[in-house]
Known about the structure:
Layout: H1 7-14, H2 18-25, H3 33-45, H4 54-59, E1 63-69, H5 76-90, E2 95-101, H6 109-117, E3 121-125, H7 130-137, E4 142-146, E5 156-160, H8 162-175, E6 181-185, H9 191-206, E7 216-218, H10 232-236, E8 245-248, H11 251-263, E9 273-278, E10 291-294, H12 297-313, E11 321-324, E12 328-329, H13 338-344
Parallel strand pairs: 1-2, 1-3, 3-4, 4-5, 5-11, 6-7, 6-8, 8-9, 9-10
Antiparallel strand pairs: 10-12
Helix pairs in contact: 1-2, 2-3, 5-12, 8-9
Amino acid sequence: MKKKVTLRDLSEKLGLSTAAVSKALRGHQGVSEATRKLVFETAHAMKYRGIPEAESAAQTAPCSFIIVDRRELTEPHTMSTYFFITNAMKAHGLEVAIHGVPMDGGDRAIFDSIARENPMALFLFGRFSQKFAEELKDTGKTTVVIDYDYPALNVDVVLPNDYQGAFTAVQHLVHAGHHRIGYIGDKRLSPGFHDRHKGFIDALEYWGLEANSKHIYDMRFKDAFGNIDFSPIVTQIDYDDLPTAFFCANDPIAYILNNSLNARGFKTPDDISMVGFDNLDSSQWQYPPLTSVNYPREHIAKKAVELMLWRQDDRESPCNKILVQPALVVRQSVTTPRKKRQLSK
Length: 345
């Protein structure tokens, strides 16, 4: 079977970047007329199937949609991901628009927008129902899921390696001398939170430490309306029986835990060390600055866009799940346990 010609094949044949070839084919500014003509001639000669219609290409650069839960639109995590996807799309001469929808997928306006604006691809970012994700994929648009996983949906996915991130967090605490390590999270909240919980448990086993059920708080942060509520952290922690350190499944959990501990006279990290997950910008401004597993937003965005462009050329290949390795950002919220410090004096 003859191999299908891809955008990369064209760029290698012409000695141009894939971004330049994409801009030429789609009528984007920044490419000379001579180069544009050469690209089209080569694309036709090589029987490249991704040549856009001349009229639509001349009007505007093709656009993709980022679809996100409306309640998450203003969150720093969402906006930074949108920023990096926008930059990655622009590098290929493409545009992106963000569309917020209710978490239950009840707003049909997104499907009207897809029919009206005819985007080249959909980036699905947020926690949606399996049914809603299936309906989006059934539009026939190239679909890439970011930071989530729908095990029953055959779709391309890019997400951080949450399991490995949690394992790395525990390793850091163990190396600092902690043997009584607690956990706060909600493994039902998302597949990512489930993997962080599993990574934590497996890391304790790897290091030969006890998974003390008194110190493992697998809470329920989602209420009956789908809203996230972290208040159980304040009311359900046993402050009379604390471990020497906590791994928190995300940074906001660590922020609330830190404030609650301080209100009860505990100091971080002198009394309790802690590590978060996501490395939100606000982590560096906490007191003390929070050690956190970095969510590799920029790299995930680049991989998602690259995967989308590849899928445009290769509709038949099996779907991919790309796990991006997170790294730990060390700050001042972890120190050796108090008893070990006293013994070393």
